Amino acid sequence: MVGSGYLGGTIAAHLRERGDHAVVCSRRRPTAASAAGLPWHPLDVRDPEACRAAVREHSPDALVAVHGPSDITWCEANPEAARAAHTGGARHLADAADGRPVLLISTDNVFDGSRPSSGESAPTSPANAYGAAKLAAERTLLDTGAALALRVSLVHGWDPDGLRPNFATTCARTLRAGQVLRVPDDHWNTPVHVDDVAAWTAALLAAGRTGVLHLGGPDRLSRYEWALRIAAALGADADLVRPAKRADGPYACRPENACLHSERADSLPELAGLEPEGVDESARRLSEALGKTHRAVEDR
């Protein structure tokens, strides 16, 4: 597992629960609770020899790449650094893998957002520096013939320990604190729960799939509508959620339609029964997790 953040840690923990041996490799020691107790190997994917050494030491059957900075706004301001991490890192991992299967977690930002939703056959046109770096990483790995690029829509879930908590966690915390939450009403997503990404990753690795596959959630909605659904699950005041425009804030470099659907998934038997969770069920789970955290703090 290359990458130890919220998503990488959750995938690694899911693989461990299945009985697989997962080693987390990253520049920093994992902070995500999901990665707690997992073996950790320090690795900077920008260093080709370090990548080769990690593969030699652990001799993995396959690699899962969740590497590089995922802060899209930061990548837009630092395109060369984003390219070095995502694209350069993919090149080094491809060389180190030496024919082993690699599953790359990629993004909806490889599309420009001009369509309401994009399937695997849609032509790519990156919306920003992050999308461009990820698309180049995809092509580098796919050229090996042993890789799968799993493009995921906006990943979310309860992430209390993250350095940069995801949108759902941020919404829940802000609303629970009784603070105003300003979110775009013109930025559309198909949010996918982190547990669904982990389940699909494990199933696709076991099946040895290659090529490109999309994973988006069943709901297509604006961030504003999504925040209102979270407020309802929390029993928070809906008036705290205020609409904003994508172009006026940090979402300006995101595509208008950051939405994915799959033209392949229904034909893959290993994905049977792994239908992605909707945002209302996810919001209910988020409310429960937030409540447990508050009760634990009060009991100290």
Description:
The protein has helices at 6-17, 48-58, 72-77, 79-97, 129-142, 167-176, 194-207, 223-234, 279-299; strands at 24-26, 40-42, 63-65, 102-107, 147-152, 155-156, 181-184, 188-189, 192-193, 211-215, 221-222, 241-244, 257-258. It has 300 residues and is α/β, with parallel strands linked by helices. It has one domain: NAD(P)-binding Rossmann-like Domain (Rossmann fold). A four-stranded parallel β-sheet has the order 3-4-5-10, sandwiched between helices. Strands 11-8-13 form a three-stranded mixed β-sheet. Helix 5 links the parallel strand 4 (102-107) and strand 5 (147-152). The chain is globular.
Please describe the structure with a list of short key phrases separated by commas or semicolons:
alpha/beta; dTDP-4-dehydrorhamnose reductase; Rossmann fold; NAD(P)-bd_dom_sf; 9 helices; NADP; globular; 300 residues; dTDP_dehydrorham_reduct
- What structural class do helix, strand and pairing data support? alpha/beta
Broad shape? globular
Give helix % range.
25-40%
CATH class: Alpha Beta
Which architecture per CATH? 3-Layer(aba) Sandwich
Largest sheet: 4 strands, parallel
Strand order, main sheet: write it out: 3-4-5-10
Domain RmlD-like substrate binding: 4-266
InterPro entries: dTDP_dehydrorham_reduct (IPR005913), NAD(P)-bd_dom_sf (IPR036291), RmlD-like-bd (IPR029903)
Enzyme class: oxidoreductase
GO molecular function: dTDP-4-dehydrorhamnose reductase activity
Give a short synopsis of this structure:
About 40% of the residues lie in helices and about 15% in strands. It is of the alpha/beta class.
